[in-house]
Each structure stands twice: as C-alpha cells, then as structure tokens.
Batch of 2 targets.
Target 1
Amino acid sequence: MKRLRTLLTAPVIGIFGLALVVRVLYNMIGARDYYPLHDSLTYQTIAFNILREHCYCLLPNLPTVDRAPLWPAIIAAIYGALGPHDRTVRLFLCIVGSATCVLIYFFARDLFSKHAGLFAGLFAAIYPFLFVYDAWLYSESLYIFLLLAFCYTLYYLQRTLRWSLILLSGVLLVLLSLTRPNGPAILALFLIWAFVMGRAKQIPWPGVIRSALTVIIVFLALIAPWTIRNYEVTHAFVPTAVGDGKVLLGAYNDKIADPHYSDGYYLGIWIIPTESTPQVADRFPANCAGPCEVTRDNTYKAAAVQWMQVNISKMPYLLALHFINMWQTGSQEADLAINRFPDRPASRLVVTMMQIMTPVLFALAALGLIVTLRRRWRDLLFFYLIIAFTIIQCIILYGIPRFRAPIEPMLIILGAGALWWLATLRKKRSLLRQKKSEAAAEAVTVSVEKAIK
C-alpha cells in the first residue's frame, strides 16, 4: 500500500488523467461510428471464433497461423466478459495508451530530471501518433506499451540484478512475441545489449550470463506451447505466425514501383497481393488456412525475391522511399478514424496537430540522440538498438508511420533529453557568467584596496 502511494503521485495521476481524457474524447468524437475493417476485422473475426467455435480460426473450423495470438485472445476475453462491442476494446486501449504515457514520464524522469519527465509525459498524452492508435482494433497500442515496459525493465536491470526483474524481462519478451511475430529479433537485440553491458562493466559477467540464460529459458518455455500448436496445425516450424511473405509481395511488385499507378498514391508502400500480383495470389483458395498459409507465405516470399532480382535497378529508389516514408507527418492508414472520417472537425484538428508536433519531435529527438550518445549511451543502448532495428525493418519491408509506432515513446524521451541538455547548458552558462561577475567584482575590490593603501 505504501509503495502504491509512492507511485500515485500528482504528476502520475495528472498525466494518466489527461491522457485518458484525450483518448476517450477522441474515441467518442473523432472515432464515433467506427467499426472494424482490414486488420482490425481480422483480429475481431479470430476473437469471435475463439468464443463461438473454440478455435483459433479466421474461418470457422480452419485453424490459422496468420496472426500472433495475444491480441485476438484479449479481444475475445473482453467480448466474453462485457459483450461483443468494439467500444469496450477501444476503452481498454485508452487505458493501455494512458499507461504508456505514465511509463514515458517515469523513464524520462529517471534518465534526466523531473521536469524532463513532466514534459515527456504531457507531450505523450496529447501526441496524435500515440492516441490515434487507441481508437481502432489493431495491436499497435499493446505492442508499444509492452516494448517500452521491456526497455524500462532493462534500464533497472543494469542497476540491480534482481531475479524479479530478470523474470519480468523474460515474460515481457514473450508477450511481445505473442503480439507480433518478431520476438526472436528482439531476443537477439537483448543478447547484444547484455553482451555490451558486460564488456562495458555495467553488469558483472556472472550477472550477464545469469540474466541471458534465464530470459532465454523463460522465452523458450512460454513460447513453446504456441509453437507446438502451430506445428500440429501446419506440420511446419512457425514460432508465432506467418505473414512476412504477404508483406514482401505487397511491397515489391510492378504497381508499387510505378509512379503513375493510382497517381503515385501507393508508390513505395504496400498493396494487398490479390490486387498487386493476382497471378500469384490466385493460386491459393479463399479458405486458405494452416498448411496452406505456410505454403502461401513461402510462395509470396519467393515471388517477392524474384521481383527484386529482376528489378534490381529499382531497388535503391524503393529502399530510399521506404526510409523516407516511415518519417511522414501524416498517415494513409485506411482504418484510422482520421481517414475513415476525414471531414470531421476532430479529424482535421488531429491532422493539423500531426503536421505541427511531429517535425518538432523529430528535431528534438535528433538533438537528444546526439547529446546522449557520449555520456548516457549505456542507459539508452537498448533504445538505440530498437530504433536501428525499426529503421532497418522499415527499409527492408516498407515504411509508413504505423511501422514507426514502436519507437514513438523513445523519440519523446530523447526529445525530453534534448530539453534537459539545453536547460543544463543554460544553467552552466549562467553559473559561468556569475563566477566571472564575482571574479570581476573581487578584482575591482582588490584594486580599490590597493589604491587606498
């Protein structure tokens, strides 16, 4: 109880409250009349089949491995407890998103100062590229929270090697992997981080080895049941889910590289394979599930690689577009409320906020990255690894603001670090001027005394 009172301070309550109000209002006004489409409809359909058919299926009685299981399972749990209303799921995401803002506050406060933490938390509460993801049924909000919590756990792990923190790191890594199928990559980044912490003598080598082995064991033990289930369904090794083939084929095809197709709207991003490459997609039935999904995914990958080899001269331009597009200040995501209901005043307000706040954040984050590299790199090493991984992932697959979402909290924290550095620099200069003034006054006093004598 005492620990809870320590955590529930005025800044925490204020940031959480502001973030929650912003998100709930946006859901009530900006996302009014929203209903699931695209990926959100896929997640909801799986959730319904979990409840009604007792099957992790996209189509009734046809088990799927096309999506990671945690988010559909959470939707199913909420629907089972409170009824099949997507508003309740979006309210849950409002709470998750508000908790992310509090984590951002804690992280920036612990890294820099209380004022930096307040800036970071309040900025996160009203930053559009965080709250727009709390008004649909995609997995972004959950993944953002889990990844930031994992980073925060590692920050404290390098200060105190407690078993509770080590186990929590392993559990969070599993939850990340069950939300998106890139867990092995995050595990690899964790092992790189642990190795560097050992080399830098930030963590003793016995602690590094103990932490790494424990996290690996927890990860493998908790992921194994789902991987075994996938093997029983597909007779193939699928750790979490397939889907890379669909992404690659949608990002590497003639239409995506044609600036005249749809007036360049899809240039350098993604088109669903049934539209971009129907000659490949039509090989598979509409009721493709389980083994068919694995075969389809491998076929899509092979077709995408073949297109790259044939069109190697176009690759530098496409890869550059992928990098540039991930830093857009707007979003083309069809299922976002700002694009579903573009004429609403709330949508126009949010788009304007994106266009104003996002470039400012990028500039501050870039400065924060530069000024923290020298003295705070140990504290922020995992940030740097995740940011680099996200950029590489966007370049290889394709870049859109939604794929930037996992690093938005890190950009805010780096931005707070830039303001902290500027405030520190100003304070140092003020102290230097004060010392010079005192020295000058003392010199005058000495001169006067000598003259009197």
Target 2
Amino acid sequence: MISTSTKHRRIIDICIYLIIVTALIILVVTVSNSEWLSLSIQRGNSNEVVQNVQMRIISPDWNVEYYAAITENVTVADFLFECADHYNFTVTKKYFTGYDSFLIKSINSIENGEDDRYWQYYINDEFADVGCSNYFLKNNDVVEWRFEQPHW
C-alpha cells in the first residue's frame, strides 16, 4: 500500500511535469511564430503587387531591358520568367532544397560555367546574396543579371 505522502509526491511530480511540458510547448509555438513573422517581413507577402520594376540582362552577345509598371511576379525568379516570356527566350533552372531556391542555369542558351562565368544577379547595383526565388522585389527595384566571374 502506498502512503499518503508518496501519493502527494507523485501528484506534485506529475503537476511539475505538466507545467514544464506546457511551458515548452508555449515556447516552441512562440519561437516558431516569431520566425515565421520574421521571414514574412523579410520576404514580403507573395500575394503583393510591385510597381515600376526593371530588369536588365547583360550577356556576352546581347542585352535585354524590361520594364513593368506593375507585376504580380514579386520574386526575382518569377520576374525573370516574365521577362523571358515577354521576349521569347528560354531560362533553365535547378531547384536546390538546401537553399529553398532556384539556381538559374542558363538564360537564352548561355549556360553557367562557360569561360568560368555564371549568371549572377544584382538588386539596385548591389550583389544579391540570397537565392533568386527567395528575394522579393520592392517598388522601383532594378534587377540586373550579369554573366560574369563568380564572387566566391
């Protein structure tokens, strides 16, 4: 037979355990929501529309300039595909799960690795350090794709 003090001790242990588990659940939910909120603010809302965005593509043999007064293609990758559709050229890509982004492999049949050059993009003349499908455009952004030696 279990003594009353042992029963009380077990009840107290169970209550402490439940309090700790509840606190951990609240902590995990709070951190997850704040990380999601942080990513939403950083990335922007994918349902937004951006205005007055431009794209320049600079290759060894040809250049393209494209302007959109308004677009729903708010990532750099989607805006590139919009430009390609407009001018009727191809873009090949490869998705990398580890980066959760596309790598642009070729634009208009000019492929990464030719003469040790690769497609790299800039936003407002600043080299972009995030994958093209993870960068969300802002109004008045200028995207420039350059076929050049890598920065790494």
